[in-house]
Amino acid sequence: MASTLNENNLEKKFQSVTNTQDGIQSLSLWILHHKVHHKKIVEMWMKVLKKAKPSHRLTLLYLANDVVQNSRKKAGSHFGESFAEVLKEACVLLRDEKIQTSVKRVFKIWEERSVYDPDFIKELYDVLESSKESPPVSSKIIADFKPQKVADQIHMVDKIAKETLTKLTMLTNSKVDAASSEALRKLK
């Protein structure tokens, strides 16, 4: 069992998984091998799902289906529980008409195989079939939000504001003729 998880590598794996039996099963086996990181894996799955196009979102759902069903046989219920925590939010992203029939087929399989409780599956159907409007805030914006980047930009703006104030104070105190371009050139 692997003790570390490279998040960038995992994100790339999710982004590049193909909608083929081999592609899904290969990544599913890799994920099951890293079951100790189930929470982080599901968190990264959701992050990639938010950024993906509808057709790739369906591939990611197929992957989740494979992981959840195989984890019940091989690795316990960790993945089933972790995915259950994000599936309602994921359903909002799976509402595209082009993939909805396939999404419902996955839910039907979960129902037939008792992968999840029937009441929970009904809640998933309800979310999937509720208002077809997109979420009020773009999920891509939320997924791409980097608080540190915002903080760095605020610091940069603050630094520029202080430098501007210092230069304005110097200009005011220097008694330079602001109308004279020659005098302003000398200040540089």
Name of the CATH architecture of the largest domain: Alpha Horseshoe
Give the class-level CATH name of the largest domain. Answer: Mainly Alpha
CATH topology name of the largest domain, in short, is Serine Threonine Protein Phosphatase 5, Tetratricopeptide repeat
Shape: elongated
Beta content: under 5%
Outline the low-pLDDT stretches: none
Question: What's the tally of helices?
Answer: 10
Which whole number gives the mean pLDDT?
86
Give the C-alpha Rg: 26 Å
Question: Secondary-structure element sequence?
Answer: HHHHHHHHHH
Helical residues, percent:
over 70%
Number of domains: 2
Give the biggest beta sheet.
Answer: none
Strand tally: 0
Characterization of this structure:
- This protein is mainly α and 188 residues long.
- The chain has two domains: 7-144, Serine Threonine Protein Phosphatase 5, Tetratricopeptide repeat, CATH 1.25.40.90; 147-187, no CATH class.
- The chain is 76% helix and 0% strand.
- The chain contains ten helices and no strands.
- The protein has helices at residues 7-16, 21-33, 38-51, 54-74, 78-93, 97-112, 118-129, 139-144, 147-173, 181-187.
- Helix 1 packs across helix 3 (38-51) and helix 5 (78-93) packs parallel to helix 7.
- The chain is elongated, with a radius of gyration of 26 Å.
- This is Regulation of nuclear pre-mRNA domain-containing protein 1A-like.
- It comes from Limulus polyphemus (Atlantic horseshoe crab).
- Residues 2-132 form the CID domain.
- InterPro entries: CID_dom, ENTH_VHS.
